[in-house]
Amino acid sequence: MIETLHSGGHGGQNVNKVESGVRVRHVPTGITVVCTEERSQYMNKQKAIKRIQEQLQRWEKEAHAQNLNTAWKEHNRIVRGNPVRVYEGERFVRKK
């Protein structure tokens, strides 16, 4: 979703009349980026979309790393696991 807004800052009367600032929101994730650096709405829109893409890539990379970490923990749990046989009695005492 893309919204336009007044930028503020330098630019004289242009700032008060023209909505050159842009707010871009990625609806599925809720990521919101506001860009008011450029004097043209088109350039602000391009920068905001690029920033959203960078954040989504960073988010995907972190999610992938988390999945690998979870898979590795599960692997260790399965491989090392619990002992198959547990002997009880006075000769076989299991130490913790």
Give an account of the 3D structure.
The structure is a single chain. By secondary structure, the protein is α+β, with helices and mostly antiparallel strands. The chain has one domain (2-80): 2-Layer Sandwich (Double Stranded RNA Binding Domain). 47% of the residues lie in helices and 16% in strands. It has helices spanning 13-17, 41-80; strands spanning 2-5, 21-26, 31-35. The protein has a 3-stranded antiparallel β-sheet with strand order 1-2-3, with helices on one face. The chain is rod-shaped, with a radius of gyration of 27 Å. The mean pLDDT is 80.
Which CATH architecture is right?
2-Layer Sandwich
Q: Give the number of domains.
A: 1
Structural class: alpha+beta
CATH class assignment: Alpha Beta
The total of beta strands comes to 3
Features:
about 100 residues; alpha+beta; Double Stranded RNA Binding Domain; 3-stranded antiparallel beta sheet; 2 helices; about 15% strand
